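Q: My labmate handed me this sequence with no annotations at all. I'd like to see what the chain might look like in three dimensions before we decide whether it's worth expressing. Could you predict it?
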Amino acid sequence: MSQNTPSIARLFALTLACATVTTSLAQINVAASANGGVGSQSSVWAAQATPDKGNDGNRDGRWSSQSVMHTNFESGAWYKIEFASASSISQINVFNRTDIFMERLSPFSVTLSLNGNTVWSATNQTFVQNINDGNPFASGMSFDFNSVMADSVMVQLDRTEYLHLAELEAIEAVPEPGTMLILTAGGVALFRRRKG
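A: Here is what I predict for the chain of 196 residues:
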């Protein structure tokens, strides 16, 4: 065996030193005002029902919580959030009012757009609660799909009615920082010998 040829034991040690790091994914609600999301709506029914109520991070659907956006009675009433920047979205969560008039939300459509063009949509939806976050005053419906790049999300009624939402969320999954593995001293020494 050549003096520059690594032994099986050294190769095994180097393989162990180069083990793969698995990182987890962090979910970021890019629609939240805390993350730069800016809400707008087709009309404002009351002073306490402004666009900022729909992305303030409060899922409480009671009117008394003062965290519910509310439009006038109109055709195709809508609520829209523009993100701070284009993001890869794979989930949308719509939180309904919970104290009264929950049926007003159906039927509705959800749309993701990029530069004004629709990149994903779900139309003529009936609200069905499928999120249980432990909050008895929150009622949410989640839409999961293959990720798309978008810079805004909108909920729009498919009829003439008031629109009120407790919260609208657009979720981006991003890798959390992993730990970098460093080669063992034996691995570094092996690399230097092979170069010499």
